[in-house]
Write the structure tokens for this entry.
Amino acid sequence: YIVVFPWLPKHFKKSTTDFHGAEVELDFAVDQPIERVAIAVDFSTTDAKLIKVALQQVVKENAMIHIIHVVESATAKYHQDASDDEESRKDQQRLELYANAIRKNGYQVTTHLGYQKRVKEIVRIVEAEQAQLLVMGSHSHKGIKDFLFGETIESVRHAVTIPVLVVNR
């Protein structure tokens, strides 16, 4: 082998490949700054951090912030936006509280209540508003809790075509 192999035609030799594929040239030019950010809130203690991190991703002058929450009451799931139950009203009030606080800091803000399925509603609103970035909070569930409480982030991440920024507690 040692004596004969070097003399064999090159097509018999195995080509060496890079484990990670071809080298990629990095391009640090900014194509388009982020102007439309969607923030999916759940009214937990993580929301303040979510909003703070989301606002750090945009230029204030051009930014449009979309705050999203999905109502999960039985009435809202059945009647959707026609429902006028206590939870829907309270959720809209809380969204407006967040929006007003953000507006005081010079940002443009809209609020969106979704109904029925969290994942589908978040994806629908993100696409309708043409958001360029989605910011979501992680509850750090593991194992059986992921199964019981759902894996919203994973499902949304697979359904949208924009970057998803996950903020841990």
Notes: The radius of gyration is 23 Å.
